[in-house]
Design a protein that fits this description.
Blueprint (H helix, E strand, L loop, with lengths): L11 E6 L4 E6 L4 E7 L20 H8 L38 E3 L6 E3 L36 H4 L2 H4 L38 E2 L2 H6 L20 E4 L12 E5 L23 H9 L10 E2 L9 E6 L14 E16 L5 E9 L9 H10 L4 E2 L4 H37 L39 H9 L4 H9 L5 H11 L12 E3 L5 E3 H9 L22 H10 L8
Parallel strand pairs: 6-13, 7-10
Antiparallel strand pairs: 1-2, 2-3, 4-5, 6-11, 8-12, 9-11, 10-11, 11-12, 14-15
Helix pairs in contact: 8-12
Length: 569
């Protein structure tokens, strides 16, 4: 249905008009009605016969029911047109193009490409839960929590690896892996993340990954050339990129030799419009062209990109935050083109423009909205301030010990000079037990500024939507009386209270059962199809004839708190 000009799957439909043939199509497991669908392949439409006993069938009905009809199905491969005789690297092995020995093929979890294990030089199928082909595989150089980075023989002998040093080699928060994963939206979700407001700011990149805004820890561009780019981070990677706030130019990735653990280097080869660069190009509402680039006739029809500006971009842009990583809303690709960079090699450039109803965080309206929402402060990981305070205390103790030893050394040197003087009598008031008190420099102790309580109050439209849901009045009352420092805290609490026990997500098309538990209607439908007619939370009997009515008041309330949360569900 996403490609109406091509043959799709077989679906049930109800005819509404004949010329042209217009139907209401029932799609999906839940048979969701999709009205006003114009049918292109009219000669392939088949009537659904009513069941008739064999003894009661007429001659016409017998002929209709017993005449075999070959159904036409959509082509799986547009390159070879599903020909079994032709070798095809799109639907067969990406190396040899062969389609045989499917039990000896492995699928890439990134590009969905198939490979014969013998073509890869492998003897057995890989045992990893997620396997990536040579084209998609990236060396993971992020140190996960509780893991050590694999290093070569040369690097294994270095001080930073052996640990024979007093220096702190990346044991802080910046190098840990995700402590949680966003379940509100899928990793390939395009558009805003429910509960995340424009202007919210996080101290570390890993935090925006945990919130589902930008999943990669290091890479600036998320997504693949197959699906597109759902998000990107601006961190001032190229000096000739221009950032005007509502519009900016962006340079693609690649073409740099980053061997030797380098984070950046001079351009040493041409960039290709593949992988992450291709992902950005796919977002543009024009025909994909990896030679000349493209420009959208209507740029607003392009796929949405969540844009995050990092503090590192402040050296090139006045719109970047001074601290942290700030979510700036939805942008779209206007055009993309190749050009020669300063180093003489080809780079891919993109013009990206803002298309978000929320005011930008650098405008007067945006600052006012952030102030009212109470989410203007930078968000730190749990325990960060305590860890920093402990570090400062240790540093202060070391500094005090160092200063004490220094003063003791000075005192001992002074005594030695005095003892060298011959025939000099010691003064009676000298005391052998006197101790020199060193003057210790006071170290700066890190103190956490406590956020004021009850800084955020739900708006009038949110309170009105809560009051309208009478069935969940007790839960909404708990939401109202709880104190929050910002809106994010409130949305997280609401998410915890209205989560479906089956899919572990925010309830979609919520059904409030007679026992006052909330569950997704599609989840409840699957439960009933499995002949389980009880509540998933308390196991209370719902009855086989339970109609599963959607609680529209709860649905409306969740839509106000999480705008667009049903998108893609």
């Amino acid at each position: 249905m996403s490609l109406p000009d091509k043959r799709g799957l077989w679906l049930t439909a109800k005819v509404e008009a004949v010329r042209p043939l217009v139907c209401t199509v029932y799609a999906g497991v839940d048979l969701t009605p999709v009205p006003d669908c114009v049918i292109i392949f009219q000669e392939e439409v088949m009537r659904v016969e009513k069941p008739v006993k064999v003894t009661n069938r007429t001659a016409k009905e017998k002929k209709e029911m017993n005449t075999p009809v070959a159904r036409k199905h959509p082509e799986k491969c547009e390159t070879c047109h599903d020909s079994e005789k032709k070798k095809c690297k799109d639907c067969g092995c990406r190396k040899c193009g062969g389609k045989g020995e499917q039990d000896q093929q492995v699928m890439c979890d990134e590009c969905d490409g198939a490979y014969h294990i013998k073509c890869l030089g492998m003897k057995v199928l890989p045992e990893e839960d997620e396997w990536f082909c040579p084209e998609c595989k990236n060396d993971d150089d992020i140190v996960k929590a509780g893991e050590k980075l694999k290093v070569g023989k040369k690097k294994a002998k270095m001080i930073s690896t052996t640990g024979n040093t007093k220096r702190d080699w990346g044991k802080g928060f910046a190098t840990v892996g995700r402590s949680k994963e966003c379940k509100v939206v899928d990793k390939d979700h395009f558009g805003p993340v429910p509960g995340v407001e424009v202007g919210m700011n996080w101290f570390f990149r890993v935090q925006i990954s945990e919130e589902g805004i930008h999943r990669p820890h290091v890479a600036g561009i998320a997504g693949t050339a197959k699906n597109g780019c759902p998000s990107l981070v601006l961190s001032g990677g190229y000096e000739d990129d221009v950032d005007n706030g509502d519009e900016f130019t962006y340079t693609g990735s690649g073409g740099r030799d980053l061997s030797g653990n380098k984070r950046t280097a001079e351009q040493s080869s041409d960039q290709e419009l593949t992988r992450s660069n291709g992902a950005l190009a796919v977002n543009c509402a024009c025909v994909f062209d990896d030679v000349n680039g493209g420009k959208a006739d209507d740029w607003k029809k392009g796929k949405p990109i969540r844009v995050v500006r990092g503090y590192k971009g402040a050296k090139h842009s006045k719109y970047a935050p001074e601290l942290g990583n700030r979510y700036d809303g939805i942008y779209k690709v206007v055009k993309y083109w190749p050009e020669k960079g300063k180093s003489g090699f080809r780079v891919w450039r993109y013009l990206i423009r803002r298309d978000d109803p929320a005011p930008a965080p650098w405008t007067v309206e945006g600052k006012q909205k952030i102030e009212e929402g109470g989410y203007g402060d930078v968000s730190y990981p749990d325990g960060y301030h305590e860890a920093q305070a402990e570090k400062e205390k240790e540093k202060a103790a070391k500094e005090a010990e160092k200063q004490r030893l220094k003063e003791e050394g000075k005192a001992m040197g002074k005594d030695n000079k005095e003892n060298k003087g011959k025939g000099k009598k010691r003064k009676a008031d000298d005391d052998d037990s006197a101790v020199v008190e060193p003057q210790v420099k006071k170290a700066k102790i890190f103190t956490e500024e406590k956020a004021p309580k009850s800084k955020f109050k739900p708006s009038a439209d949110i309170l009105k939507a809560m009051d309208a849901d009478k069935l969940n009045s007790k839960v909404w009352e708990e939401v109202k009386v709880k104190e929050y420092s910002n809106k994010k805290e409130m949305t997280e609490f609401v998410e915890s209270q209205f989560g479906c026990i089956i899919c572990q997500d925010i309830v979609f098309q919520p059904v409030t059962t007679p026992c006052l538990h909330n569950v997704c209607k599609p989840c409840l439908d699957r439960s009933f199809k499995a002949e389980v007619f009880s509540c998933s939370s308390c196991r209370g009997d719902l009855g086989k004839e339970y109609t599963k009515p959607v609680n529209t008041d709860l649905r409306d309330a969740l839509m106000v708190i999480f705008p667009g949360y049903e998108t893609g569900r």
